[in-house]
Specification:
This protein has about 280 residues and is of the alpha/beta class. Helix content is about 40%, strand content about 15%. The chain is built from ten helices and nine strands. A seven-stranded parallel sheet has the order 3-4-5-6-7-8-9. A two-stranded antiparallel ribbon has the order 1-2. Helix 5 links the parallel strand 6 and strand 7. The longest helix has 16 residues. The termini are far apart. The structure holds NADPH dihydro-nicotinamide-adenine-dinucleotide phosphate and the ligand O=C(O)C(=O)[C@@H](O)[C@H](O)C(=O)CO. The site of NADPH dihydro-nicotinamide-adenine-dinucleotide phosphate has 28 residues, from helix 9.
């Protein structure tokens, strides 16, 4: 199976990356990012609101050196938090993220949530378009956008988002949103894909894992990528970091997919984008 997705602009992104939410600045995170890169990860996801961009940057530098690779082989994502929304503040926030990361560009910059002020996310998107058109960021996208947010954004956008990072789990399969995005060639990316561990003890997931001789987490990663969804499971545990990327030697059956699809109950673990304003 191909290990990268291709965006509508022709750029590519690894299907599996490392998440870093709830990882504070510090040596544990530096070592996790470094270990991920040495283990073969090429994609790392962070955000201004995680307050960890400095350690992610340090992990990237150490990982690049230890793995003997070039920065250009990595795909780094960070995100614009709601407090920084607005045209000028978005441009400033991007530079501040780069400074903390110690990078001169990121591969993907996302509007983190739509928030509740339509004009503000449209203004912020214009700033991301400027960064993109000026060659300061490789790709721009959104996170937590529902269909109604896309309908508004796409009326005025001159650059279409390449990706939408949303909650996507067997309990919340986002079928309508994914079909809408597929129609517009916008890639889906899942956050909290392991439901912070909750989904790993689901009986259906555990049975499929046993049948394939794989772990429940590997079943979830595989279910994501076989659904064309980019996935960024978070772990600071070296063996789990390796395990979550070791998914290219088996395939789920049609029956596995059917059983996993039956788990949908449109249940979120995170906030609802229709209501969330960052607090
Ligand atoms: N755009 C958005 O609004 C959001 C984006 N995100 C992004 O998505 C990423 C992933 O989501 P997140 O909320 O962190 O949660 P995940 O669903 O990825 O779950 C992470 C938890 O699962 C554990 N874990 C990881 N791998 C395994 C494994 N193989 N076996 C057993 N347990 C495992 C981790 O433990 P341990 O670390 O101890 O190994 C951690 O406790 C975030 O880190 C962030 O980058 C998340 C939420 C919202
Ligand atoms: O993790 C993220 O990327 C989020 O946006 C959310 O989890 C948010 O920061 C939050 O804490 C919601 O309660």
């Amino acid at each position: 199976m191909e290990q990268q997705v291709t965006f509508h602009n022709g750029n590519t992104m690894p299907k599996v990356g490392l998440g870093t939410f709830r990882c504070p600045e510090g040596e544990e995170l530096v070592q996790a990012v470094k270990h991920a890169i040495v283990s073969g990860y090429r994609s790392i996801d962070t955000a201004r609101i995680y307050d960890n961009e400095q350690s992610v940057g340090e992990g990237i530098r150490q990982g690049i050196e230890a793995a003997g690779i070039d920065r250009s082989e990595l795909f780094i994502t960070t995100k614009l938090w709601l407090d920084d929304f607005g045209y000028d503040s978005a441009l400033e926030a991007y530079q501040a993220s780069l400074d903390r990361l110690g990078l001169d560009y990121v591969d993907l910059y996302l509007l983190h949530w739509p928030g509740q002020d339509e004009q503000l996310y449209l203004d912020s998107w214009q700033a991301l378009e400027k960064l993109y058109n000026d060659g300061k960021v490789r790709n721009i996208g959104v996170s937590n956008f529902a269909i109604q947010h896309f309908e508004r954004l796409l009326q005025v956008a001159s650059v279409k988002p390449v990706i939408n990072q949303v909650e996507f789990t067997p309990y919340l399969n986002q079928k309508e949103l994914r079909d809408y995005m597929a129609d517009k060639f916008i890639i889906a990316e899942s956050w909290s894909p392991l439901m912070n561990g909750e989904i790993l003890t689901n009986e259906v997931v555990m049975n499929i894992a046993e049948k394939h001789g794989k772990s429940p987490a590997q079943i979830i990663v595989r279910w994501n990528i076989e659904n064309d969804v980019v996935i960024i499971p978070k772990s600071v545990t070296p063996s789990r970091i390796e395990e979550n990327l070791d998914v290219y030697d088996f395939e789920l059956t049609q029956e596995d997919h059917y059983e996993l699809d039956q788990l949908n109950e449109d249940r979120r673990v995170g906030p609802d984008p229709a209501e969330y304003n960052g607090h």
